[in-house]
Write a structure and sequence with these properties.
heterodimer, A: alpha+beta, five-stranded mixed beta sheet, four-stranded mixed beta sheet, 9 strands, about 35% helix, about 30% strand, B: mainly alpha, three-stranded antiparallel beta sheet, 20 helices
Chain lengths: ~170, ~450
């Protein structure tokens, strides 16, 4: 004998299906945001040679934030204003060290996009581990993807909340 | 979701109940702790090559925030050496109870202070001096020594582990985040506890001591105040105590709604935000202000720190909890909803710590070979050059932690808000905004 489904049961089943569909949409969109390749080359400025002078003193760099384009050849001229300081670029692994009153230079091709911390690699005093600067190469895709995932998370949670509200009268 | 009783394994249960095994670990920890104090005093004044700084703020912190708290909850508290001398003195014994106990004062902790407000205050106090604490070995040694003295003194005046429960600046946030851990200690059948005569798990018996954390295990529903010391496993005459494996964050399905715990979640979230800017940001003036204690810039830093943590973050979140005329109901809503921020807070600390630990991890190996800076090379690593570790995976891992923490918090906010019959939209937007800010600072 077959039992006919109740109207409430039909509504609950439909609500569950909608909820699953919403989750599926969010997951697919999240995978796209996380892994879809960024368009490269279009509108990007041609690579140039950049000469950047950086002063290092206890416990900061000036300027402390550097911005270059992907593919640029970058020369950093490091000058120390007090003790010996270094400049090591995370992710690239390049470094340079400058004695007080002397200028030391480092040249490299910025061929990896993203945001990289640079930091002192010569023990220079109490705050040495926190003597940090930031190098941005082109678009910071990790930050953009992360922010995109967060915004998607907000939208997904609001979408699911809306479905719950329709199904169960949640405010 | 169901749980898996780990103590169903007779071997594991025997190991957990074994006082000698626990004593061996505690003695080892106590020796390490004492050594860290000595190294802080007599070792190199340069933080990055001093055992005290390197082992406490890099090795121990990594083990605590990346492994112990997320996976074992208060697992660290079960082997923490700080309360041990006080407890031995309080009990007049280092193993199980026997004979007459010494006559200490044995006072109950004052009723008005039976909360975690003092723990939050102690954490904030240390946080204001954190950049000096993290870089100056002598200061680290003094703080470690002071905590040992305070815990011992309180152990002789008050009952049980009052220091751990009400004062320890670390214990407060371990308790808060231990709710996320997939391990719990619970009773198997609460009815047995109700009819149990004498309640030896709380009052003690010939088999063991009453709960050092001043908790009646029969009433346990959250990990927050259970120190996993295993004393109740020894004292229960009905074999009614179990250590279980469970789903992550099970405790947060039933948030307590306590204002002191709510405040703690803002203290921790705010501290992660501020540390990310001060310690890992490129702003030298900010570091300088935090370091130059007593300068006018430092006072501005202190006021800003406290205003952000005590007013801005909770104040904005209060708007998410639908303020109304009924202050009591609002307070409950606010406290319960703030528990949704716990996964995000833990994720923020994981993301922050990953950056700090992976960058400075090589100092641990160098320090291990020459812990007192006497020119030793015990493991052949004393001359190891500084090198950041796993740079390529750092940012994606931080991103994963923060995004995961946000989605988890948002889902919890939605659940708690629904139960409180308020909209979850403001809380989700709040958590999203904090996550974006953390990403901007850390990635």
């Amino acid at each position: 004998m077959r039992i006919a489904p109740t109207p409430g049961g039909v509504q609950a089943g439909s609500s569950t299906r909608k909820r699953r569909f919403a989750w599926l949409l969010v997951v697919v969109a999240a995978l796209l945001v996380a892994f879809a390749p960024f368009p490269t080359g279009m509108g990007a400025p041609p690579p140039i040679h950049r000469l950047i002078s950086v002063q290092a003193g206890q416990y900061a760099y000036a300027p402390s934030e550097l911005q270059v384009n992907l593919g640029d050849t970058v020369t950093i001229e490091l000058a120390s204003t007090d003790s010996v300081h270094g400049l090591y670029i995370d992710g690239y692994g390049y470094s340079v060290q400058a004695d007080p009153g002397q200028v030391a230079s480092l040249t490299f091709v910025a061929d990896r996009p993203g945001s990289f911390r640079f930091r002192c690699n010569v023990t220079c005093g109490a705050l040495h581990p926190f003597m940090i600067g930031k190098l941005s190469v082109g678009r910071d895709t990790t930050l953009l993807r992360s922010a995109g995932l967060t915004v998607l998370g907000v939208l997904g949670l609001l979408l699911i909340r809306r479905q719950d509200a329709v199904a169960g009268g949640v405010p | 979701m169901s749980t898996l009783e780990l103590t169903a394994s007779a071997r594991l249960k025997a190991l957990l109940k074994n006082r000698y095994a626990q004593l061996a670990v505690l003695v080892l920890m106590l020796a390490g702790y004492a050594f860290a104090i000595v190294a802080g005093v007599v070792g190199s004044p340069v933080g990055s090559s001093n055992f005290s700084i390197v082992f406490v703020w890099i090795a121990w912190w990594a083990a605590l925030i990346l492994v112990a708290v997320p996976l074992l909850g208060r697992g660290w508290c079960s082997v923490c050496p700080i309360p041990i001398p006080g407890e031995w003195l309080q009990r007049g014994n280092v193993l199980g109870p026997h004979g007459r106990q010494p006559r200490w004062r044995g006072l109950r902790w004052p009723r008005q202070l039976r909360n975690i407000w003092l723990q939050s205050a102690a954490f904030l106090l240390l946080a204001l001096f954190s950049i000096v604490l993290l870089t100056t070995p002598l200061v680290t040694a003094v703080v470690l020594g002071s905590m040992l003295v305070a815990a011992t003194a309180l152990g002789m005046v008050f009952q049980r582990r009052s220091f751990c429960r009400y004062l320890c600046p670390v214990g407060g946030f371990i308790g808060l985040y231990s709710q996320v851990a997939p391990v719990e200690l619970r009773v198997k059948d609460k009815l047995i506890c109700i009819s149990c005569e004498g309640k030896p798990c709380y009052n003690g018996s010939a088999r063991g001591y009453g709960c050092p954390w001043d908790v009646f295990p029969g009433g346990l529903s959250r990990n927050t105040y259970c120190g996993l010391c295993m004393e109740c496993l020894r004292t229960c005459p009905h074999d009614n105590i179990a250590v279980n494996l469970r789903a992550f964050a099970s405790d947060l399905n039933q948030p307590a709604g306590r204002l002191d715990e709510a405040f703690k979640s803002f203290v921790m979230l705010g501290s992660a935000l501020i540390y990310s800017a001060v310690l890992l940001g490129p702003w030298g003036a900010l570091k300088d202000a935090a370091y130059r204690i007593g300068s006018s810039a430092w006072f501005v830093y202190v006021v800003s720190f406290l205003v952000i943590i005590c007013l801005v973050l909770p104040g904005l979140f209060a708007l998410c909890a639908s303020p109304g005329r009924d202050a009591r109901a609002f307070r409950l809503r606010f406290s319960r909803l703030s528990s949704a921020l716990i996964p995000l807070g833990l994720a923020a600390w994981i993301a922050f710590s990953l950056s700090f630990i992976l960058t400075n991890g090589t100092y641990v190996l160098a320090s291990l070979s020459d812990p007192l800076n006497l020119g030793w090379n015990l493991f052949g690593t004393s001359g190891l050059a500084w090198q950041p570790l796993l740079s390529a995976v750092l940012a994606p891992t931080q991103s994963l932690a923060l995004t995961g923490g946000f989605v988890w918090s948002g889902t919890l906010a939605h659940k708690v808000a629904s139960e409180s019959r308020i909209s979850s939209v403001p809380a989700v937007l709040y958590a999203g905004a904090v996550t974006l800010l953390l990403m901007r600072l850390l990635l």
